Amino acid sequence: MSSDYRKDSITLLDAIAMGTGVMIGAGILALTGQIADLAGPLFPFAFIAGAVVTAFSACTYVKMSNAYPSAGGIGMILQKAYGPTTVAAGAALLMALSMVINESLVARTFANYLLRGLDMPRDTWMVPAISVGVIFFAWLVNISGNRSVGWLSVLMAALKVGGITLFGAAALWAGGFSFEATGRGGETTGAAGFVASMALAILAFKGFTTITNSGAEITKPHRNVGRAIVISIAVCTLVYLLVAFAVGSSLPLDRIVEARDYALAEAAEPALGRTGFYLTVALALVATASGLIASVFAVSRMLAMLTDMKMIPHSHFGMPGVIRDHTLVYTVVIASLLTVFFDLSRIASLGAFFYLVMDILIHWGVFRNLREEVGARGWILLTAIGLDAVVLAAFAAMKWQADPSIVLIAVTAMAVVFVFEHVFLRLRPPPRHHHRHGA
User: Fold this and answer.
1) What separation, in Å, do the N-terminal and C-terminal C-alpha atoms of the chain show?
2) Within a 10 A sphere around the Cβ of 83, how many other Cβ atoms?
């Protein structure tokens, strides 16, 4: 795999840019309206609650990454926690799939903002067509090499963090610091709706795992992986909160929910005028495109490492190049299929289910087998599990009422993943030398 990974090719700044790039691309642009639909007028605080849950979860990833920095990130954690078992392989594949789902989410968000900026209908074939096009663009950037991705990630992250922060401050100022998003946002309100909305808020922060999955390539990884994770989560929390209040100061709740696929653009016009609207659309396009590039970069490396660890099957299908070149192709093909067949709400729901289940399995495995070795505190791990479980249950209950088919799709897909991995590992058992703990 020496040709696939380049030690010290990602600086601390690159890693922070990569994490914030994935988070901001998906979080504030794609999910604000959907969170408002579930949480009602309290939707800005759902981002704070999501950040708290994410902070507990991040402790596990920081401890593991500091001890064992790896380009396989999540796969490495799961294998060390469970050994080369069905649980480890299945959960790792769920994580990879949730990252691919994130790519389709961001790609559709790009398409929605572009069409809104052009004042064109968004219920046509153009949304999936544009989405597939921007996924292909992300693939082209990624095949050009790590330094291109790192340099572009830093530039794009600086532009969008600065630009979105400026948008939030300007919109709040124009709105007179009043909060217009009151009233009923959808069919679900109250405490249950707020807790359910936290699943999407957590999804808005899951991009920090992008850093974990590039651990072996980050300079001074035993120190910088953890630092990059903490800094990127902190930056995104401030940006999300500022923008959520800015959107709430510009639009009533029903309009935020109605325009949930392009909420920032909708909020920009009453607050900042037509020029502000176009600038916000341009900013959204930059944010989503760069987030997609960073996500493709990370998931292809994770899939390549899982292949190297013999946890998933691999076929090059006659393609030239190394394994990472092949996994880049797999990544963009699956993301393209998802963006064609699912809308934003369903894509986000599927990603939340996959990620929360995987996250619970990560914490349980570390709690059971690794907490003393890596210095993780048991109460933090159990709190992370409990918070994830409560949010997952509330979100599943809400989705069962509103869209039961997506719950069935998620459960079926997860079952297929674990059955597939069980059969694969029985037919081609991987070496067990990585595993030092009973599963």
Assistant:
1) 27
2) 19
Look up the domain containing 111 and give its range.
Answer: 12-427
DSSP 8-state code for residue 10: B
Tokens of 101: 């789902």
> How many structural domains comprise the chain?
1
User: Residues 125-144: pLDDT tens digits?
Assistant: 888 889 888 888 888 877 77
Query: Domain containing 140 — which CATH number?
Result: 1.20.1740.10
8-state DSSP, 312: S
Cα torsion angle, 99, 100, 101, 105, sign? positive
Distance between CA atoms of residues 418 and 218, nearest Å: 31
Note the pTM of the prediction, 2 decimals. Answer: 0.83
Residue 189 backbone dihedrals phi, psi, to 5 degrees: -140, 180
Does 281 reside within a domain? yes
Whether residue 4 lies inside any domain: the answer is no
In which residue ranges of the chain is pLDDT below 70?
1-9, 25-27, 69-72, 145-154, 157, 175-189, 213-216, 314-326, 430-439
Crossing angle of helices 378-402/190-205, nearest 10°? 120
Q: How many CB atoms lie within 10 A of CB 370?
A: 22
> Is the separation of the CB atoms in 16 and 228 below 8 Å?
yes
> What tokens were used for 45?
């605080």
Which residues are registered as beta bridge partners of 27? none
The pair of structure tokens assigned to 30 is: 């794609």
Give the DSSP letter string of 149-197. Answer: HHHHHHHHHHHHHHHHHHHHHHHHHHTTT-----S--SS--HHHHHHHH
Contact indicator for 357, 392 with CB cutoff of 8 Å: yes
In this structure, is residue 3 part of a structural domain?
Answer: no
Q: Is residue 308 part of a domain?
A: yes
Residue appearing with tokens 């999300």:
240
